[in-house]
Amino acid sequence: MTFSISRQIIEYETPDTGLHVRHHILIAGIGNRNHLLSHANLYLLNYARQSLKTSNRYSSVISMFYRYLSAEPRFADKDIANYHVFVTNNDIRRWQISRQVTRVRNQSAGPVSETIFEDAKVLLGYFHWLNTNGYLTNVEVALKTCIANFKSERMLAYVKAKARVTRSGKNIQTLDKESRQCLFNSLITSDEIRQYLDAFADPVYQTLFKLALGTAMRPIDLCKFPYLGDRKNVHILPYSEMDHEKLTFEYTAYGSKGNKTRTIVIHRDDLRMIDESYIKPLYQDRRKLYKERYGKDCPLSVLFLNSQGVPITETMISSRGTAAKKKAQATHKGFRDSVTFYDSRHWWPTVFLIKYFGDDLLTKAVDFLWAACAEALKTQMGHESLETTFHHYVDKARVVMAAAKGRTTELVTQANSGVHAMIAEFHCLR
Question: What per-residue confidence (pLDDT) applies to 222?
């Protein structure tokens, strides 16, 4: 059966609870008719309604799996609405193998084995929900037969033979290693930051990236940053109206990842950057565009709007970040493919550790460092358990420090500085 699957975001109040929800739905286009995939959509309502990012991922995995099934002979005469009834553990396992076969055939760095495994777990979560809610399926979630073991020599040989690799002898393990090398970069450089910022067509994304560099805010928190704060954030105002004597300000992020509340420290200079690069030159004009578009004043809880007056979302940050990377790569030779908007999350803790400890990073034990600053990192990054993350960033900071040994004075002389000063200091290391 030939069909297409599209995804749409819907927003409504559930009749049973009255809750206001927003999530993706899957729609199968068969001929001239569209069919809602009710079972998948009910699952997305139950498990992904609190986060569009989660909803996007879960719906993407399910639609990807259904498209795979549609090409399988066994499903040729099956109604897509009933696919879940006929799926077995072996179907899920074969889907994982097919993704690796395609990857090896194309000699692509992704999707990595870990991603394929994590996507399979999402799929198992879907079938577990179906089983526990009384819907008929042939998937036994408790069994491990649906997880492909790509470390098995037999499996590696099978994938390579199936892919008919002739141009290169690279197998899954080699491709995974290359991918890890691509992902574990030392640190986004000052030149890359400048090139990336210059590549954004809309200045609002430049401001957002700078704010992320200076605070380690997640995109979900950046999008919710207000023009005028309320509750614990009543002191958050345009910089020109704030107390200029204070060096840092606390900002409480409500509804952050996992719908949790966290406290973030923002340097005075970064608030000034928002004021000078976005609020003064752009904000009022964009408020007018918002009113023209939506027929009402832009809420003061919304600060960041694009050039059409539309509030910035996580998805918009992701898509504009990718576009900026491609533009920077086309303009600047050597701009790494691994650079993303999310590098700001890695940049801040690495720089924090370097500026906090200085040369002690190269001479003191990790346990000593952990006791000294774990709480500060935990609070700013918004992690529940930071031990693994802490060790990761200590290693990364040590690499940077070792590479710049003998020239680190500039890094530790101004422990309290905004993102502009920090970028300038790192530029001195080159």
Answer: 95
